[in-house]
């Protein structure tokens, strides 16, 4: 099984297989019928003028898939939705990336796309919060904002005419991410939602589900308004010197491990599911390091199978 | 030496002349790679990892920025052959096979969809028992499809030879080192196009055609198998995603 190389014992193997089989039986039958691989024919009605979208090509008048994935049909459009592939950016996506290079007036970020993304100095808020032209001094001080290997949260601004991808960070909620863990998961496991920033008050943790499959779990930081007095800034710098409390660190690790388990099992990452998994590990007294052990994987798979079964039952009951 | 038993018609390893070795394929074996696969043809065992499409690392290698740059590196593990020997990285044989794999894969990848980027394919032979070239191409196809890289068609490859006046499919190491003709064919399975054709030694024209026909049959059988694996994998991912 992919990505899962666990030392399972006999019972665990049987339980995991049963849970995965359950998930398979719960999935709608249409999903398996719509799965295609490279060079499969996509059945279409030739009479209606269809539009060929991503992942399709034309071969002898037939629509042929060029990717492995699931066929989606929206009105006339037929396209293949990929599963395991690199991230495909859309304007407005919230992403997490890592700075790999500082170039004149810009940072280059690795965001799991086929190219590096560009964050211009002019498309981000300066730390002093004043709107003004960026001067040569600002350019020289770029390293004081982001350095190489810093983790940064930003928004996709759009493609430039030369094909490069530009980002922006014009709000207090974007910017450098510190004191936490960056996890990389396949991009198809993160769905586009209204909310990608989550503040989990019970844990004092911030969780950012980047659309590009980079997930940030870190200590909660207060988003401050620009109109602050000097004393507030003093307080902020004091806070920087203080350590993250051990409790918060444990929560970060627990949530990060929950994300690891869920992504290894290939379940869609939603905030509810991550919290549920972390809660379950707490309530069943699983140590943080044991969360990556075989037993917890099996339990998570079984829990997910139960959850989906309940959902399906509710849906059918409502009808 | 007799490579085909005149009485029973069986080959040295007990196969019939038109029989292939057992195939086994698995995707997702390298967790950090974008796509990866393990492919076995009998005792030949190859692992392939694909990284990309990603930012071009060395700008000087980029010929056309409108298309993706495909790079390939072939290596034989030291423990892959009978005699354990340290092989230098850039020897002629591995450079040639790297080139062959690169060209074969490039023919099927839709490079124009991924401008300003590069795709790296790394193939390593874990066990060599003849037909490593074919096994590497098959593994690379699986890994590329796993990485979600758009391709025209599935490329598969298989070898065939001619020994003891009978055409043999999928030569193993003993038959390969007999010094007879060895035809390696790579095809785009659905489009029925040949992307790779290599031959050692000489063959009369009419026998060549039968040998090549046999190899193409082998390629098609491999293509069917590879598509089964990919479809099963896609379905699994979709089920679990929910």
From TrEMBL, chain A:
It is found in: Nucleus. SUPFAM superfamilies: Eukaryotic type KH-domain (KH-domain type I), Nucleic acid-binding proteins, Ribosomal L27 protein-like. One of its GO terms (molecular function) is RNA binding. Residues 90-170 form the S1 motif domain. Transmembrane segments: none annotated. It holds the Pfam family S1_RRP4. Keywords: Exosome, Nucleus, RNA-binding, rRNA processing. One of its GO terms (biological process) is nuclear-transcribed mRNA catabolic process. The keyword Oxidoreductase does not apply. SMART domains: S1. GO terms for cellular component: cytoplasmic exosome (RNase complex); nuclear exosome (RNase complex). Belongs to the RRP4 family. This is S1 motif domain-containing protein. It comes from Brachypodium distachyon (Purple false brome).
UniProtKB/TrEMBL annotation, chain B:
It holds the Pfam family RNase_PH. One of its GO terms (biological process) is poly(A)-dependent snoRNA 3'-end processing. Residues 19-150, 153-218 form the Exoribonuclease phosphorolytic domain. It comes from the Eukaryota. The keyword Cytoplasm applies. It is found in: Cytoplasm; Nucleus, Nucleolus. Gene3D superfamilies: GHMP Kinase, N-terminal domain. InterPro entries: ExoRNase_PH_dom1, ExoRNase_PH_dom2, ExoRNase_PH_dom2_sf, PNPase/RNase_PH_dom_sf, Ribosomal_Su5_D2-typ_SF, RNase_PH. GO terms for molecular function: RNA binding. One of its GO terms (cellular component) is cytoplasmic exosome (RNase complex). Keywords: Cytoplasm, Exosome. Belongs to the RNase PH family. This is Uncharacterized protein. The lineage of its organism: Eukaryota, Viridiplantae, Streptophyta, Embryophyta, Tracheophyta.
